[in-house]
Design brief:
9-stranded mixed sheet; 3 domains; 285 residues; Pseudouridine synthase; 21% helix; Alpha-Beta Plaits; Structural Genomics Hypothetical 15.5 Kd Protein In mrcA-pckA Intergenic Region, Chain A
Length: 285
C-alpha cells in the first residue's frame, strides 16, 4: 500500500497525449488586426465585472496608453491599459484569450498573489517574461498538491469554477483512520457542512488487493462537483478520519499527466482545450 499515492500517475497516462509535455509555455506572436472594446477586454483579464469596469471608466480610473479611456473604446495589440492606479496589462492576441495552462502544484505553495508572510505562490512558477494576467482556476490550499489550471479569460475562469456547470474534481487522498461502511455511505449520500448538504460523487479504495483490514492509512480516489474550501478534508473529519495527503488528479476532462513534474507548467493544446470547453456545457463528457 506504500505506493498507492502514485497510482494517479498511471491513470493519467491515457490522457497525457492531450497536453504539451515540454514543461514550457509558448507565447504566441500577436495578431495586429485584433480589436476589442475596453470593458469586454478588462472583464476577461481582471477580477472586475463589465459593469464595474464601465463605472471605473466613468470615474476616469482607466487609462489607455496614458489617456483617459472612454466606454466602448477599442483596444488593440500593444496597447497599455492602466487601472486601479498602479495595475496594468498589455493587450495580447485574440487566440491567447482562451489559453489554458496546467500546473502540477507542489506542497507548501499558496494560490494567492499577495501574502503578508511573503510565501511562494503558484504565479511564481509562470513565465516571468509574460505580461498576461493569469487567473488561477480551482485553487488548492497550501497542504494540497496536484492539478491546477490557469486562464487569461475571466469569463472562462468563472464558467470553469461555477458549481452550476458541474465540472468534476477528482482527488487521491490518504486517510488516517478506519472509516466504517456507514461512514462510506454517509460520504456518498451527504454530510452537512456549514449548513449545506455535501457529498462525494464517488469514493473507492485504491489498491484494494493490498488492503489490510487493520491499516490506519489508506488511499482513496474521490470525486466532488464543487471546489468549496477544504471540503474533502472536512467531510473525512466528520467521519473521525484525518486527511494526511491530498492530490488533485483531474479537473473536468483534464487529468494530471505523468510527465508533468511538481512545479512544472504546460499549455493545453487545441484538442484538450476544446474538450474542456465542451465539458462546461456537458459535464459528463
Amino acid at each position: 500500500m506504500a505506493n498507492a499515492g502514485n497510482d494517479w500517475i498511471d491513470r493519467a497516462q491515457q490522457v497525457s497525449r492531450l497536453v504539451n509535455h515540454t514543461g514550457c509555455v509558448k507565447i504566441i506572436t500577436p495578431v495586429e488586426s485584433f480589436q476589442m472594446r475596453i470593458q469586454k477586454y478588462l472583464s476577461q483579464h481582471s477580477v472586475h465585472s463589465r459593469r464595474q469596469i464601465e463605472q471605473m471608466i466613468i470615474e476616469n480610473r482607466i487609462l489607455i496608453n496614458g489617456k483617459i479611456a472612454e466606454i466602448g473604446q477599442k483596444v488593440t495589440i500593444g496597447d497599455k491599459i492602466t487601472y486601479d492606479q498602479n495595475k496594468h496589462t498589455v493587450v495580447r492576441m485574440k487566440d491567447q484569450d482562451d489559453q489554458v495552462l496546467i500546473m502540477n502544484k507542489p506542497l507548501g505553495i499558496i494560490c494567492t498573489r499577495r501574502d503578508p508572510e511573503n510565501r511562494r505562490n503558484v504565479f511564481d512558477f509562470l513565465p516571468s517574461n509574460d505580461e498576461t494576467k493569469w487567473i488561477a482556476v480551482g485553487r488548492l490550499d497550501i497542504n494540497t498538491s496536484g492539478l491546477i489550471l490557469f486562464t487569461s479569460n475571466g469569463d472562462l475562469a468563472n464558467q470553469l469554477m461555477h458549481p452550476r456547470h458541474g465540472l468534476v474534481r477528482t482527488y487521491h487522498v490518504r486517510v488516517f483512520g478506519q472509516p466504517t461502511e456507514q461512514d462510506m455511505q454517509r460520504l456518498l449520500s451527504g454530510i452537512h457542512i456549514d449548513g449545506k448538504r455535501q457529498r462525494f460523487l464517488s469514493c473507492q479504495l485504491l489498491n484494494q488487493k493490498s488492503h489490510q483490514a487493520n491499516s490506519q492509512n489508506q488511499w482513496y480516489e474521490i470525486s466532488v462537483g464543487t471546489g468549496q474550501y477544504r471540503l474533502v478534508r472536512r467531510m473525512w473529519q466528520a467521519c473521525d478520519c484525518r486527511v494526511s495527503r491530498l492530490v488533485r488528479v483531474s479537473y473536468g476532462p483534464i487529468m494530471l499527466p505523468r510527465s508533468l513534474k511538481e512545479g512544472q507548467v504546460s499549455i493545453l493544446n487545441g484538442e484538450a482545450l476544446q474538450r474542456l470547453k465542451q465539458a462546461i456545457h456537458d459535464p459528463d463528457r
